[in-house]
Design a protein that fits this description.
- This protein is α/β, with parallel strands linked by helices.
- It has one domain (about 10-190, about 215-250): Rossmann fold (3-Layer(aba) Sandwich), CATH 3.40.50.
- It has ten helices and nine strands.
- The chain has a seven-stranded parallel β-sheet, sandwiched between helices. Strands 7-8 form a two-stranded parallel sheet.
- Helix 6 links the parallel strand 7 and strand 8 (about 210-215).
- The two termini are about 30 Å apart.
- The relative contact order is 0.13.
- The model has no long low-confidence stretch (mean pLDDT about 95).
């Protein structure tokens, strides 16, 4: 195991939802959190700011440093990593969580929307990872975690540009893991089995409470994954249930948004239709 106490963790997209939940969960294990996102001032359309997350991190016993940045700006990505090192003396973990989502047939995408989705998802993950790798090497190793799904080609219709941008993150993790293992660096991908209740899923009308789990399941899976020694953990596109099962957790009822309903697999079906049937769900 790899002690998380004192580790410096950079979380992008940390102002709300899964990113904020991961930051707070890691704070409970003594991590020093660098919280990066665009939202510093409250937005009536999307509750949650970096300041809110920083307060929650500190209430959980961790240290927090807030950095506002635009993930589409490669110089800003470099600056976030530089600021993490300046504030806490190094970097041990990068969590690429910031994301943009849009589903539509290829003919209905605009180039502007395509550039936004690729800029926030794949390009930013590349820029941040590229900047982070030398810092992880300097620490003798560490983790890069992409919040991205397994790659399954038959899921493309209706979601192709979005999925390609997310699979690009998964491919980057696989490459980084192979290229940097001799430096003690591990890279992985993580994705939920069910829908997760966030501002995005609510605003986009992606289901209802009985179909969702809380962000806590991904936060707990993140902690379990990052607690493994990166020198011995090799790439895998993990599902949250798989990570928790390996940690001995097989009862997921506590993560339900509606305590009376166990959500059916939804998020994984978006990238791997037929997963439920193959897995007896």
């Amino acid at each position: 195991m790899w002690s998380l106490s004192g580790k410096v963790v950079l979380v992008t997209g940390a102002s709300r939802g899964v990113g904020a939940a991961c930051a707070v969960a890691l704070a409970k294990h003594g991590c020093k959190l660098v919280l990066a996102a665009k939202t510093v001032e409250p937005d009536p359309r999307l509750p949650g700011t970096l300041v809110d997350t920083a307060r929650a991190v500190e209430a959980a016993g961790g240290q927090a440093h807030v950095v506002a940045f635009d993930a589409r700006d490669s110089q800003a990505c470099d600056a976030v990593v530089t600021e993490a090192v300046r504030r806490f003396g190094g970097l041990d973990v990068l969590i690429n969580h910031a994301g943009a989502i849009h589903w539509a047939p290829v003919a209905d995408w605009t180039v502007k929307r395509f550039d936004l989705v690729f800029g926030v998802n794949m390009r930013a993950s590349f820029a941040l990872s590229r900047a982070a790798i030398p810092q992880l090497r300097a620490r003798g190793g560490g983790h890069i975690l992409m919040m991205s799904p397994p790659m399954v080609a038959h899921a493309l219709p209706g979601k192709a540009p979005y999925l390609v941008s997310k699979w690009g993150m998964t491919a980057l993790a696989q490459a980084i893991d192979a290229e940097e293992s001799s430096h003690g660096i591990s890279a992985s991908a993580l994705w939920p089995v069910t829908g997760i209740r966030t501002a995005a899923t609510e605003n986009l009308g992606m289901g209802e409470a009985k179909e969702w789990r809380t962000p806590a399941i991904l936060a707990d899976a993140t902690v379990a994954l990052l607690a493994q020694d990166p020198r011995h953990l090799r790439f895998r596109a993990w599902l949250d249930e798989e990570v928790l099962a390996e940690a001995g957790i097989n009862d997921f009822a506590g993560y339900r948004c509606d305590p009376d309903h166990e959500p059916l697999p939804m998020s994984i079906e978006l990238v791997d239709p037929g997963w439920s049937a193959r897995n007896g769900r």
